Amino acid sequence: MDEFTEYIASLDGAARDAVEHVRARAIQLVPDAEEGVxxxxxxxxxxxxxxxxxxxxxxxxxxxxxxxxxxEALAPDLAGFSTSKGTVRFTPEHPLPDDVLDRIILFRRDxxxxxxxx
Length: 118
Prior knowledge:
This protein is an alpha+beta fold. It has one domain (3-116): Aspartate Aminotransferase, domain 1, CATH 3.90.1150.200. It contains four helices and six strands; from the N terminus they run H-H-E-E-E-E-H-E-E-H. The protein has a six-stranded antiparallel sheet with strand order 1-2-3-4-6-5. The longest helix is centred in the C-terminal third of the chain and has 19 residues, at 98-116.
């Protein structure tokens, strides 16, 4: 199943590039991640759990790490971005820095690994 890839292909321009960048970084960092659906969104899944998703809206790109603790842990690095319990919002013109994106993805991967090793 290629749900995330198909979703990205449905986007245009800068939004497509921004969402694809999230997917590509996640695959690079977590090569065992697989495409699927989580909470009704095309997403990457790792070890049977949702890892990350990104969705384009008219105003922003929403990054969904499926982990409020990930957003809380990286809150100082997310200053200047709109956040909520489960979302980080950015725009193609003001993207998340790669090091912050990477830390969110790796935080979630580690969270899943810890959950699965219990």
